[in-house]
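Why should sequence recovery work at all? Because a backbone constrains its sequence more than one might expect. Tight turns favour small or flexible residues, buried strands favour hydrophobic ones, and helices have their own preferences. The token representation captures these environments compactly. In the example below, the structure is given first.
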């Protein structure tokens, strides 16, 4: 009987300990959710640096070749400029002029964070949200931030706390898919060696699908990239949603064997439950968020550990302010926020500024500035990658001046 009582009491103690452990885990999750929740609604833009109102008098969209530039002018005559996504603005300029510009005219630019709410509600824009709405919003936001920086002679980073990094480590990403492994290796060398990059990213799968040919390429390329670039090189790979769960796990295990740093979008981006299953079963960090347009969905993904590196695209997601909120949520959860970079234009410049003041931006940021078609000058940085690093501009606003002749020879885009 004594033994039976001992066993019974031990079982009770174990059950109590188990319940206490579960309660502790749930308590920690609740605390994490509270911290993340706070960062959804907390203001991130420091408007106290601006003493006087900066009333927006006009907003113009101009085009020179394939380059679209937003110009914001205040009633006092100050101007801010931003280069939009060249590919998407080609079709989205009517959205920009019709649904994005009106709620900003005549408003105080210092209230930019509140204005983002206004434009979301204007003419039921919340029903239109997604990449096709947020790219135009981001294009205007960057121009307004440039304007405000010039008004008070502050860099963009100063409005979000302070600049933490003056030099940013960058990586190059291959946009090729379907070539044989040896061809991809040669291409990766061509894009990384000239800038001294210490990191790279290449593509896997067949984009939202896979087949025997793509799988054979993937399984050969993953070890070959590591062998070619060595153990000290940081390597990322992006499947662009190509796999199902079983194939993601198979490919992910190989990536773990060769010590890859993250596995981007193993399955379609909106397969949230499947992505979580993959993340739970693999050790490698899962990255994602490029196509995500919902702040609340990012919150859910972070809370539920769906991804371990969040990747809002600064243009797709609507600009710096919304992306900073994602970064703050990620920081509360102890994970990195490494933005995705789309297109050319000046996307890499926006990423540099973001990474300069975000403490959890991750070790490397994508660089696509080699084929930039926008003529500008920057007195505080060459904006060239040297030894895998780029110096962040410290001038007012975005820290660059677009060639006035390029501006004057552009045509205004009108409805």
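From this structural description, the recovered sequence reads:
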């Amino acid at each position: 009987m004594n033994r039976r009582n001992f066993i019974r009491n031990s079982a009770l103690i174990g059950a109590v300990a188990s319940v206490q452990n579960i309660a502790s885990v749930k308590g920690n999750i609740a605390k994490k959710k509270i911290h993340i929740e706070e960062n959804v609604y907390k203001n991130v833009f420091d408007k106290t640096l601006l003493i006087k109102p900066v009333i927006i008098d006009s907003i113009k969209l101009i085009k020179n070749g394939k380059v679209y530039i937003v110009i914001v002018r205040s009633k006092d005559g100050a101007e801010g400029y931003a280069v939009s996504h060249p590919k998407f603005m080609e079709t989205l300029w009517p959205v920009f002029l019709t649904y994005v510009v009106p709620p900003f005219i005549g408003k105080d630019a210092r209230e930019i964070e509140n204005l983002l709410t206004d434009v979301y509600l204007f003419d039921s824009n919340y029903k239109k949200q997604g990449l096709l709405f947020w790219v135009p919003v981001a294009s205007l936001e960057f121009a307004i931030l440039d304007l405000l920086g010039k008004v008070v002679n502050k860099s963009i980073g100063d409005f979000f706390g302070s600049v933490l990094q003056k030099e940013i480590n960058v990586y190059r990403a291959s946009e090729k898919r379907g070539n044989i492994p040896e061809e991809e290796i040669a291409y990766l060398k061509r894009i990384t060696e000239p800038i001294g990059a210490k990191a790279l990213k290449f593509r896997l799968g067949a984009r939202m699908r896979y087949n025997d040919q793509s799988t054979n390429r993937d399984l050969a390329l993953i070890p070959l990239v590591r062998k070619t670039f060595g153990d000290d090189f940081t390597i990322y790979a992006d499947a662009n949603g190509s796999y199902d769960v079983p194939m993601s796990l198979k490919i992910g295990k190989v990536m773990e064997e060769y010590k890859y740093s993250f596995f981007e979008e193993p399955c379609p981006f909106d397969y949230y439950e499947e992505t979580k299953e993959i993340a739970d079963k693999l050790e490698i960090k899962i990255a994602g968020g490029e196509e995500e347009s919902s702040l609340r969905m990012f919150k859910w993904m972070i809370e539920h550990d769906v991804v371990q590196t969040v990747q809002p695209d600064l243009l797709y997601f609507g600009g710096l302010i919304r992306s900073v909120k994602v970064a703050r949520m990620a920081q509360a959860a102890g994970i990195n926020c490494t933005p995705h970079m789309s297109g050319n234009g000046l996307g890499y410049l926006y990423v540099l500024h973001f990474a300069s003041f975000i403490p959890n931006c991750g070790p490397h940021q994508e660089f696509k500035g080699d084929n930039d078609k926008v003529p500008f000058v920057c007195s505080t940085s060459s904006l060239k990658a040297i030894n895998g690093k780029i110096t962040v501009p410290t001038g007012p606003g975005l820290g660059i001046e677009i060639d006035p002749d390029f501006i004057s020879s552009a045509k205004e885009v009108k409805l």
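A few observations help interpret the result. Residues 158-396 form a domain with the TIM Barrel fold (CATH 3.20.20.120).
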